[in-house]
């Protein structure tokens, strides 16, 4: 089986609905929040060359797209997904690495950031040189945070004035260090524990408000 990862074009529009369905079903399976995408939005990214797709013998295998904020000052990678038939092959890491390198070429001055609740994504980001940061170091563009409205955790984000949520913010600044080797150690056990503590703190606060 040969899997290729390429920059998207209009010929890939036919995969847009499947990509959206796969992203949503994966989030539901994990029980995590999700910012929903529409096929039209995915197609727009495809036509602009701001996305990469993995194809296995012509079939959709994985996807990720790029968003830019504050006139290219910040860049984010969103919608990283691997089709269930092609998981456990290290494909997510390959896609993320390809998108990362592509972003550095297309937006050489941009800081690359992301917010995620997934430990697997955090690990990939750490290996690429991202570091955990508070939300205050990320874009302040309201349109980015508006994209979180369809996430189940959005009320938490609102209550914290976009300064904190269950997601962890991660940032790569090309001005800090060259890509090789800016590896930040990743301790899954520590991050997993911090995630659980954060969830418990938010849950206790919401319950106290709800029953007060």
TrEMBL record:
Short name of any one Pfam family annotated for the protein: Acetyltransf_1
Domain of life from the UniProt record: Bacteria
Domain N-acetyltransferase: residue ranges: 11-151
CDD domains xrefs: NAT_SF
Name under which the protein is recorded: N-acetyltransferase
Organism: Flavobacterium limi
